[in-house]
Amino acid sequence: MVVVAGALRGADGRWLMHRRPFDKHHGGLWEFPGGKVEEGESRPAALVREMQEELGIEVDQGALVEVASAATDGGDGSPAIVIYLYTVGRWIGQPAALEGQAIGWFDFAEIAALEKPPLDVELSAALFAANGADRIK
Ligand SMILES: Nc1nc2c([nH]c(=O)n2[C@@H]2O[C@H](COP(=O)(O)OP(=O)(O)OP(=O)(O)O)[C@@H](O)[C@H]2O)c(=O)[nH]1
After folding, report:
1. Cα separation, 8 vs 76, whole angstroms
2. Helix (H, G, I), strand (E, B) or coil at 6
3. 72: which strand partners?
4. What is the pTM of this model?
5. Which residues line ligand 1 (CB under 6 A)?
6. pLDDT given for residue 100 in this prediction
């Protein structure tokens, strides 16, 4: 399964994380907003669609920069997943939790402490390294 996710940084420098609904795989964990790439869809187009569905914001494909990727081979009954994380440089609208339990804005130390799916530990570390905070795991 190919998944795309977005890293949005607010004016105060905090990053947006999204809490998954409790009834879904990885329920209650905090992750970067996003979702599965559909058949015939490009990754950037999928992310633009997911930002609209999940957060109600308009994102321009030209404002997406791929920053990291991470993969699992599944095996424990869950499907193999590869996730591509993009920084979202600008958007129109105010992000809202339209599908999940909640959204929040966090600094690096706070994100390091959130309960996350395993791939997000890797993705957030790469995001922090690319943004000058490689001391935080
Ligand atoms: N969106 C997102 N999914 C992630 C992240 N990390 C991670 O392991 N995943 C996993 O990747 C899969 C993505 O599925 P999703 O449920 O977000 O995708 P979706 O919205 O298209 O699914 P749906 O059609 O079931 O609502 C889930 O198993 C999710 O737990 C992440 O940072 N963001």
Report:
1. 31
2. strand
3. 81
4. 0.92
5. 3, 5, 24-26, 31-32, 34-36, 81, 83, 117, 119-120
6. 74
85, 10, 99: which is closest to 47 by C-alpha? Answer: 85
Side chain identity at residue 27, one-letter code: G
Query: CB-based contacts of 83: which residues, under 8 Å, 6+ apart?
Result: 3, 4, 5, 34, 69, 70, 71, 119, 123
Ligand 1 centroid – CA 34 distance (Å):
7
Q: Which domains does the chain have, with CATH numbers?
A: 2-130 (3.90.79.10)
List, run by run, the mean pLDDT of 10-residue segments along the chain (137 residues).
97 94 90 97 98 97 96 84 96 94 94 96 95 59
Q: Which atom, in ligand 1's list, is nearest to the CA of 72?
A: 8
Q: Which residue, by CA, sits nearest to atom 11 of ligand 1?
A: 3
> What ipTM score was computed for the predicted complex, to two decimals?
0.90
Cβ neighbours for 22, distance < 8 A, ≥ 6 positions apart: 28, 101
